[in-house]
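4.2 Preliminary Data

To establish feasibility before requesting continued support, the project team ran the inverse folding procedure on a target of 253 residues. The structure was first converted into the token representation described in Section 3, and no sequence information of any kind was made available to the design step. The complete token record follows.
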């Protein structure tokens, strides 16, 4: 199938696979610092680096923030020839390294970019859902890493940025309701391949990541996607905050 396109940036569009930047000099520099002949140690180095050196972007009130503004070609002190503001956008791995901030898909793309320089076989960014294990409630759409580790399949949760918290768990546990939250896989990709697992993953999951999952479930994708961006973004932020708190609490135990 065709590789999905990400078009939430500033008028420019990219294939989702282009966000895995294995050949970039900044990514290669990070790889050189984190690499190890032992693949398990390499995975641990990347997991710790992502956890301890980056943050999920929050506004002054502590709410998730994915808004962005691009200014190009300065015209005067306060004016630019090109200006573009968006309510939700993805960040390239190099931009995350430079800024120190990124939402779930940003930190996942950064982690996988480094893991794939070598590359680490059978490692992917996964796009899917987070659900409450007890109630089965849909908490939000999400991105994370699935990879080989300790002769098994593991999930690396890249949105945890609290020192000392383990961000590597067995894939079997996170997919099969062994934690307080569980993940549902809809699609996975690397720098050259994109694989849908469900009909949602065939294309729609790219757009769902920037929408409030509960509202989409109640009102339908088309209705929510057609609403004013500011209103959608406000709902997404509220939901995203609760989702992140649930993930952190589950991984702390």
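Position-by-position output of the design step:
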């Amino acid at each position: 199938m065709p590789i999905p396109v990400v078009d939430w940036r500033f008028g420019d569009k990219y294939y989702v696979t282009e966000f895995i930047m294995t050949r970039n000099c900044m990514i290669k520099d990070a790889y050189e610092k984190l690499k190890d002949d032992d693949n398990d140690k390499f995975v641990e180095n990347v997991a710790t680096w992502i956890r301890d050196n980056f943050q999920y972007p929050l506004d002054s009130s502590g709410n998730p923030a994915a808004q962005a503004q691009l200014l190009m070609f300065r015209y005067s002190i306060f004016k630019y020839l090109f200006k573009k503001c968006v309510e939700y956008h993805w960040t390239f791995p190099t931009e995350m390294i430079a800024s120190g901030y990124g939402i779930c898909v940003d930190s996942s793309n950064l982690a996988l970019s480094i893991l794939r320089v070598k590359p680490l076989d059978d490692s992917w960014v996964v796009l899917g859902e987070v659900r409450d294990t007890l109630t089965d409630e849909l908490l939000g759409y999400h991105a994370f890493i699935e990879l080989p580790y300790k002769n098994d399949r593991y999930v690396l949760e890249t949105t945890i940025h609290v020192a000392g918290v383990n961000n590597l768990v067995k894939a079997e546990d996170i997919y099969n309701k062994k934690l307080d939250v569980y993940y549902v896989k809809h699609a996975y990709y690397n720098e050259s391949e994109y694989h849908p697992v469900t009909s949602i993953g065939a294309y729609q999951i790219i757009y769902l990541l920037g929408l409030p999952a509960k509202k989409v479930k109640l009102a339908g994708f088309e209705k929510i996607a057609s609403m004013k961006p500011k209103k959608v973004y406000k709902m997404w932020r509220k939901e995203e905050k609760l989702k992140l708190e649930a993930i952190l609490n589950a991984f702390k135990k």
